Each structure stands twice: as C-alpha cells, then as structure tokens.
Amino acid sequence: MIPQKEAVLAICEFLGRHGYKKVQGLSINTIKNMFLHVLENSFFVLQLPGMKPKFYQQIRGGAMGSACTQVLADVYVKKWESKFVEQQKQQEQLYFRFRDDVFFTTTLPPQQIERNLTELNEKDHNIKITWES
C-alpha cells in the first residue's frame, strides 16, 4: 500500500524533474493540495444484510479503482524501482511492470537475485517484491 503523503511528494518531484511549473494552468502546489484532498477525504460504506450502513474513512493508501490512486501508485513505484531498472538496462536485461506485476530477465544466479531483491525490498517498507523462477 502506497503511503499517501510520500506518493504525493513523488508526483511533485516527478513533475519538477520533467520541467513542469504548471499543468493545464494548475501550479504544482495546487496539484499537490488536490491530491492530498482526494486522499484525505476518501470514504466508503459497508452495509451488511440486516444492519445499518457503516461509513469508514480511508486513512492508508488510496481508494482502489480511483484514477487518482492509480497515478500516485505508478509514479511512486517508478521512483522506487528506478535504480533496479537502470541496473537491468546496463546488464541488457528486460524489465516490464504493469501496476504491481513485474517481469524481468537476468543471468544472475539465484543467490544473487535473492540478495538484489532483499536490498530492493529494504528501500521502502510499503512495497515488497517476491520472485518465482
């Protein structure tokens, strides 16, 4: 689950790194505040048969299926994986990711793969990658 504030900061860094001062007339600060507003004001309802509905506020991550959450997650994970992706390019290996599914090739022995993934997993306690051979 992506952390809310860190994901929004990753969006701001991403926009700044690519030279954006505004996006469709909105300043980066306004975009930041809008993302935070959406995340901090996300609610859902659960109603079990025969019971009154209960309302809950989302306090971690973002609402599944939200376009806002998808963008935040994609940019946040892109930042997290950047060093690993660069290593894959240098080794002329493949790396593909769609949302939270990753496919990569390697010529490294299994012990080295395990060490690399352990190091990658230690970068952020919100993201974990496991592997199957």
From TrEMBL:
<protein>
    <recommendedName>
        <fullName>Reverse transcriptase domain-containing protein</fullName>
    </recommendedName>
</protein>
